[in-house]
């Protein structure tokens, strides 16, 4: 089982072999449990030694064991190596199996799990492994994980033949420059630089557990690595894993979690390679609810919503396509969060001016800290006219009238209420409960503290730009119904918001039922 767990990682398909004169064995069940936990759906059942016993009984028994697993519908072949019966059928079945497999991705970043290390006189350290995707060439620089050491490929062999490059899927032997035999062991990985997250913390979805619990101390098997982990259950299907040592991961990676005490195993799908800390009461339950809403393979959109701000390079490290509102530089921001931040910045600028009448302009660094932003460029990108940034401070026109504190507080309550759904404008009765009477709404809209789209339809200030960003992701042109669905709002809000965007020049009518986002010169 140890060897099987070390070798199954990069394998896309499996051949289950059962002897006709022995039938299904306990070890077969152990191997099947691992395969089912990994969700490996491509396979072939082969019953051997068909000259010694009736193979149909072994096929029937194996079918019964495979039923209900990911291999429940695989093809079955019976063979005899003594008589040669069925060998041609086996070759054809293997051809069909391979033709149905997803092709390797030659442009994917390399992650080669090392399964053997030795030295060759006159050459130095040599490692072997299975390359599932990507391409390795002589002269390439790779990162040795978990040490983080940079090494260079001095020589390369595939199936004992010297080559200058090799692409997945292939067995390879690499002669490395930059590491010694004593510093390189089985279970390490060689990766493309800056394309993998070397992490000691993972949020994962568990597969294959019923009501059984794995212990708090387990072993995580991925590739040829076997890493001790501490398990914190976030719910029945989710867990936070803390690894004893860092390893390279992408979101979507699959692995095996094994409890050495009970020998129970669970399949693991990696959902987040740099999860936020679990601090405060109810944090684990909140994380479970969030992860439960994610698809089986989370996209960049779910990750950005969770982390709020990510660089494009962060998405590459996570193995996901960059998605979201391009705010500044390399930064992408969750559109809903960006809408809330715009209103919060306007409020901060006003409050600072009220407390510092002799120096009313707000320093960008103070705004960065107050808003919890990772880069001052994000603050500068939030600043919209009539505000402006000069000499590291945020200025607003001196003639701008000040809101009474009661109205400003009501605007803040509106922003807080719409923090997670910025386009679900409250009705008139709820506005009054928040302190935004008709007169208060008019006063706040006059000073640019909020958007007044129609009588009783009010949104945070940042909703304008956020709506444009979301609508720009729709197929163009789009209908009002499609816009309403994308913005997660009602027709009461969607229609006046679209008319407002038309007036501001953000959108333009195509015909009586559709409109499109207006393209800006020099902008995507």
Keywords:
524 residues, Rossmann fold, Elongation Factor Tu (Ef-tu), domain 3, 6-stranded antiparallel barrel, 6-stranded antiparallel β-barrel, 16 helices, 29 strands
Describe, in plain words, how this protein is organized in 3D.
- The protein is α+β, with helices and mostly antiparallel strands and 524 residues long.
- It has four domains: 2-99, Rossmann fold (3-Layer(aba) Sandwich), CATH 3.40.50.300; 111-191, Elongation Factor Tu (Ef-tu), domain 3, CATH 2.40.30; 201-218 and 235-278, no CATH class; 337-517, no CATH class.
- The chain is built from 16 helices and 29 strands.
- The strands form eight sheets. A six-stranded antiparallel beta barrel has the order 4-5-11-8-7-12. It has a six-stranded antiparallel barrel with strand order 13-16-15-14-17-18.
- α8 (335-355) packs antiparallel against α11 and α8 (335-355) runs antiparallel to α14.
- The protein is elongated and about 95 Å long.
- The mean pLDDT is 90.
What's the gyration radius in Å? 30 Å
Distance between the termini: 53 Å
How many separate structural domains?
A: 4
Going by helix content, strand content and strand pairing, the class is: alpha+beta
Low-pLDDT stretches are none
Strand order of the largest sheet: 4-5-11-8-7-12
**Beta-strand level of the residues, as a percent range?**
25-35%
Number of strands: 29
The main sheet comes to: 6 strands, antiparallel, barrel
Please work out how many helical segments DSSP would assign. 16
Helix content: 25-40%
Average pLDDT score: 90
Protein name: Selenocysteine-specific elongation factor
Domain Elongation factor SelB fourth winged-helix: 470-511
Organism: Nonomuraea muscovyensis
InterPro entries: EF-Tu_GTPase, EFTu-like_2, P-loop_NTPase, SelB_WHD4, T_Tr_GTP-bd_dom, Transl_B-barrel_sf, WH-like_DNA-bd_sf, WH_DNA-bd_sf
